Amino acid sequence: MRRRRSRVGKGDLPDDLRRRLLAACPPARLRLTIPDPDRVRGMKVLRSVLGLDLASAGAVFEQVRAGGYTGTPPEIALLARVLARSGVPAEVR
To answer: Which of 12, 52, 73, 77 is close enough to 57 for a disulfide, judged by CB 3.0 to 4.6 Å?
Structure first.
């Protein structure tokens, strides 16, 4: 999985710490709770939170939409909260 910019702390979550978090607890999955969410809003959130370019945000949005986007529980909880606040209902699985 690609290294992500963390908005929870300062800067990037170091890869070794992220690997340890994933080893200690299983990855969480981000799932949209409505069938046809606002793609533009969702991509805007992903670009902002994850620091992605437009093409990457589109690809990640499709992963989220398909139920295949995973990360550490805190990463996914943050994304779900920010997406929901922006009008794109999401949940952690």
So the answer is: 52
Q: Measure Cα distances from 27 to 24, 40, 50, 72, 83 in Å.
A: 9, 26, 17, 5, 19
Full DSSP string of 42-86: HHHHHHHHH---HHHHHHHHHHHHHT-EEE-HHHHHHHHHHHHHT
Cβ–Cβ < 8 Å for 92, 27: no
Distance CA 29, CA 26 (A): 10
- Residue 29: in which H helix or E strand, if any? strand 28-32
Distance CA 29, CA 93 (A): 5
Angle 81-73-49 (CA atoms, 0-180°, nearest 5)? 45
pLDDT, tens digit (0-9, with 9 covering 90-100), for 24-77: 888 999 999 998 899 999 999 999 999 999 999 999 999 999 999 999 898 899
CB 92 within 8 A of CB 83: no
